[in-house]
Specification:
The protein has helices at residues 10-22, 41-44, 66-76, 87-115, 128-148, 162-172, 186-196; strands at residues 2-5, 28-30, 54-56, 62-64. It has 203 residues and is α+β, with helices and mostly antiparallel strands.
Length: 203
């Protein structure tokens, strides 16, 4: 088993944090995105979408998409549970995971890919207007998250889940584009400080 990854990219970081929470270690193969190693034929055979991360199993089966990889490890090592503990809890975690992925992580990525000069090799053409439009979407998502965190320590309740991982990675990925959580979103700022202090956040 090996994990094809890229240290500075947000989606691989989601898997890294998840594995750290589980206490699982997997050998890693670093893919240099700026050198477009993800577009080489040998990588495309593993993931035709040309993105990291990719988990290659011992039999050659390849699993891509960060949440699919996390689900695989959740099944083989259920504790601690990061996708929920019962039917309702799993549904709520899935709901917030999707909200964060679509409303926060994706817009943050669009800001970075369309506005950061270093992302020009990855996003051709860069459309500055689209990058700027997504800044507003990011703030709206953070305000939604702030309301959710008003009466609970973590995104879906009393336990840290994959939804917290996605939110942490999404907010941290705002830094390269030089914008952050609004000061009036005190609940998100409190939550971010606490989850950032977890050992897994440094994975």
């Amino acid at each position: 088993m090996k994990l094809y990854t890229s240290t500075r990219a947000p989606n691989p970081r989601r898997v890294d944090i998840f594995l750290a929470e589980k206490g699982i270690e997997v050998p890693k193969v670093e893919i240099n995105l700026n050198n477009l190693e993800q577009k080489k034929p040998e990588f495309i055979e593993r993931n035709p979408a040309m993105r990291v991360p990719v988990l290659e199993l011992d039999d050659g089966t390849c699993i891509s998409e960060s949440i699919a990889i996390c689900r695989y490890f959740e099944e083989i090592q259920p504790d601690p549970p990061l996708f929920g503990v019962d039917t309702l809890d799993r549904a709520l975690v899935e709901m917030w995971q999707r909200r964060i992925e679509l409303n926060l992580m994706l817009p943050v990525a669009m800001v970075f890919r369309h506005l950061h000069p270093g992302a020009a090799v990855l996003e051709q053409p860069q459309v500055a207007e689209w990058g700027e439009a997504n800044r507003t979407r990011v703030i709206e998502a953070i305000e939604m998250l702030d309301r959710q965190l008003a009466d609970r320590p973590f995104v879906t309740g009393d336990r840290f889940t994959v939804a917290d991982i996605s939110a942490l990675v999404g907010i941290d990925f705002m830094r390269p584009s030089k914008f952050g959580v609004p000061e009036n979103c005190a609940n998100v700022l409190r939550w971010h400080s606490e989850v950032s202090a977890r050992p897994s956040a440094k994975a």
